[in-house]
Amino acid sequence: MLQDLLLKCRAGHGTDISPIFLAVKQGIADLRGKGCDSGSRCRLDVDSDLEENVEVAIRNRLNNSSGNKLPLPAPIDNSNIVVSFCGLAATTGRVVDSSGRAVHDFAMRDSAREDRLRATWRSLFSSPDLVTFHPYCPVASVVEQYKAGANA
User: How far apart are CA 55 and CA 70, in angstroms?
Assistant: First the structure.
C-alpha cells in the first residue's frame, strides 16, 4: 500500500500556482488547533522553493518590484513553533502545464534573490528567529523505513 502511494505521489504533475503563504498559515493554525502553545515544542516543515505567486504583495517583494508597494500580509504568529523551510535550492526554472507547454518562467536565481527570499519570508512571521532555511529537503523513504521496521 505504501509503495503504491509513493508511486502515485511521484507521478503527480507540478502546478502553476504556489500559495505557500496560505499553506503555511493554515499549517500553523492546524498546529495551534492541536495544542501547540507556550509549553509546546512544535515544528512545521515546509518543502518549497519559496517562490510565492498567489499573494501579490509577497510576489512583488520577492521580485524586487518597485512599482506596486502593496503592504505585506500581517505576520503569522509562529511563537513557540519552529518553521523550517527546505527545498530553496531545488528549482526547475519553469512550470509546464499537462500538455508540456511552458506556462511560467521563474526569475533567475542569484545571491541577492536568495537573500531577498529569506529576508521576505522571515518578515512574514512574528518570531523570525524560529524560521530556518535549508537548501534541500532530507530524503526519506517511508517505504524503506517501514520495511526496515517490519524486518526488525
Answer: 10
